[in-house]
Amino acid sequence: MNSEHEHKNRVKAGHAGSAFRRIERLPPMLLVLYLGLVAITSMFVILVGAYIHTHHSNEVPSGLHPFPRYFSLSTIVLLLSSYTIGQARTLYQRDDLVALARCLAATLLLGCVFSGLQFLGWRELVQQGVFFSGEASGTYIYLISALHVVHLLGGMLYLLVLLLRVIHAERDAIRALVFIRNPYYRRQLTLAATYWHFIDALWVALFAVFLFLY
Fold first, then answer.
1. What is the pTM of this model?
2. What gap in Å lies between CA 1 and CA 7, rounded to an integer?
3. Residues 6+ apart with CB under 8 A from 48
4. Residue 93 to residue 29: CA distance in whole angstroms
């Protein structure tokens, strides 16, 4: 009996230890990214919760105005950018730095288009009489969407740095070989794609909340 109990304790301890070992094996940059994503998620969950509470407590009726069409267009654009950044890893594995540069440039361009469409969406809100300093629930729409754009711009800056490195590497055969074989650059590309997909999924969730309550 004691040996069986000790065996179970060892198994549980082994599972706990293996979980901690997996965390310890994570590259520091990847661990920092995951912690950052958890913090960003927590912040937006709190803001969305406050928005829903304010909307219902003020008894704001839904459907008074048509939902800003530019928000819908921006969602399509961001989904397209998620597809383009998703091709980056495949192109890297094929050693095709020229196509990789185009892929990153296309993702950056779509990110810029998304940001511009968000601005047009805010202008459409103003035209409907929904102001940042007006009704509290309207303020949350501006605040949440603007914070999302800020986080997207952070990802765009990181992508821009990667794009410049890829362009610099593909101009020389030796630099291209070093870039392709260096696991540090492969990890950077993975980090950028993971963050971008997260920002994409975050906006889709926010868009669904806005669409439901607006």
1. 0.84
2. 10
3. 144, 206, 209
4. 21
